[in-house]
């Protein structure tokens, strides 16, 4: 497990909800996460990703 991975994953949901609640769009949040953490996440809704 990469250093700090558990700490980041533990609060990531709260951070995303907070950013969204403050008016950021999903694409803006994804762009922010890519800049800060170097992540590439899908903008598709979870039900489409998981095939539900």
UniProtKB/TrEMBL annotation:
The keyword DNA-binding applies. Keywords: DNA recombination, DNA-binding, Transposition. InterPro entries: Transposase_mutator (IPR001207). Pfam families: Transposase_mut. It comes from the Bacteria. The keyword DNA-binding applies. Belongs to the transposase mutator family. Required for the transposition of the insertion element. This is Mutator family transposase. It comes from Actinomadura vinacea.
């Amino acid at each position: 497990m990469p250093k700090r991975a558990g700490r980041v994953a533990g609060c990531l949901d709260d951070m995303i909800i907070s950013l969204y609640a403050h008016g950021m769009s999903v694409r803006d949040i994804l762009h922010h996460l890519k800049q800060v953490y170097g992540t590439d996440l899908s903008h598709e809704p979870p039900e489409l990703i998981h095939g539900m």
